[in-house]
Amino acid sequence: MAEYNLYCFAQSGNAYKAALMLELTGCDWGSRFVDFFNGETRTPEYRKLNVMGEVPVLLHRDVRLTQSAIILDYLAEQTGRYGWSSEDERRDIQRWMFWDNHKLSSYTGTYRVLRVFSKESNPGAMELLKGRMMNAYAILSAHLAENDWLAGNRMTIADISACGYLYYQDEIGVDFAETHPAIQRWLDAIASLDGWQHPYDLMPGHPLPGKG
Ligand SMILES: N[C@@H](CCC(=O)N[C@@H](CS)C(=O)NCC(=O)O)C(=O)O
To answer: Cis before residue 204, ω within 30 degrees of 0?
Structure first.
């Protein structure tokens, strides 16, 4: 059994944040596929594992963690990589991770679910989410036009958190090279690191059955 075990599935940008951190830091980790699209996170067994019914969940020795930001914070401490060098910097990193969880990943992830995975069409919800998502991209882009990284003048877990959904560009229906070149430059810089893999290569569950 690997040292770290991650409950994940390939379409989850939130799980990808943890998987990417584990891979970039060379951790000995294994994946446990969660059959999200067939309702596994709604089962009583899964709710015992995570009362919030969400992916990712990380197991490490006798520690069980949920929430990607907390998992990244823990892994930064465990590995000594992509973390902070002062308490002020830690707060700055957390500030971006809270923003990512609320404004960037959640609107992008929900919009993508409606656009690509949902059987029902909901144009009103999609328009609302797309507007919020595009506002978040404008904020991210403005920051990255002035800074190479989100916090601390070097790559940190804030960057690993915020990039989580943005490698699924074709499914989101955006082309950052065209619309937000500063975001594309930053995504390319992360993707050039040793060990980087696209979420569909790093985690199990792609392609979805019937979508081969
Ligand atoms: N803030 C959480 C969000 C986790 C999340 O929403 N995960 C999705 C999969 S990408 C999920 O499991 N959703 C199930 C649900 O919300 O019921 C994190 O960053 O870990």
So the answer is: no
